[in-house]
Amino acid sequence: MPEVLAHLLASLAPRPQSLIQYTPRAFKREPLPFSLRYFLALLCIIPSLATCAAQTLINGQTYTNGLAIINAPFPGSEQHVGSTIAISIELSGNGKLPFAAFTPGSGLASSYELLEIYLASSATGLNLTISSGTGLLTGEVGTVRHHDTVLPSCIPTGQYNLTFYETSVINSIPCFTITPIPISISNNAGSSSTCSEGTNQLQTQPQPSSDYGQSPFNPNLQVVVSTGRLVSGAAGTQTRPSESNTRTPTSVVTVTSPSGVASTSAPQPSESSPKSSGLVTLVIVSQAVATFTNSQNQPVTTSYMTTRTTAVLMSTATSAGFIPINAGKARLDDVTCIFIPLLIALWAITLVFRLE
Fold it and tell me: Which residue stretches does the UniProt record annotate as biased composition, category Polar residues (predicted)?
């Protein structure tokens, strides 16, 4: 009978491979999908851009970088031609401004001079006047202003900006605030005609503004808003300084069209187009700030304003002599809103790509 030789280890189960051999395979890091990396980068960028917005949404109200707080419409809402678009504006900063501040020329340190509304779209080429002049400020009692407008059937379907233009003084600082509220308008029947009534020439975007930089009524910022008289320098007993004193003059220009509506109040978005010829009224308001020494040998700073009105002939052939309203230089906060999000974006992109 043949003998079967058995190895001492023959009955043992096969030896498994070392766990170390499996470790690299079990914990190998796969690169993140491109879509996920893109999403993570957006999460880092969006909060930084939010701080640079021209308005802030708090409890359903749009806090502009001026005095106005917009109750309605809500940003991103959908409107329809033939229906009424309801506009509601809180003027008092939720009870922080007196009624006198709503009257243009009140002389208060924080007050309104003008508030107008336009509906504009660069895509459809439409720029429609919703409310112009001072009627929106003075047409109602109370702190809230309403303006209900029926959207005409000539408005084509598209994305629009319901843009609020505010000229005001905030803590004795002159401000010009532009607040666009994005809305969509649907015209299911299609636009059968071209809007002609209340239309304006389009202007280039973005439009220059000189706002306060933030809402003075934002409850998260704790800004103190002055409701006293406009601060213009030293006491009223002081006299105008002589020509030898130091002066820093500035000018504010207001152009009024033949119809009596101020052109400053209609800075609508758009393409450059020929201007209509004819006489327009030019009102030049100059403010001079002077520093001098009083009888007690103390330095005193004061300011005074002068107004000059003249007629100017506007020609369609040239724009020479035309002074663009509020065409100021970029402020430090504008530059910050550009570079800080850019730096955060670069950091975010570097971070997510290092996760590969």
Answer: 235-247
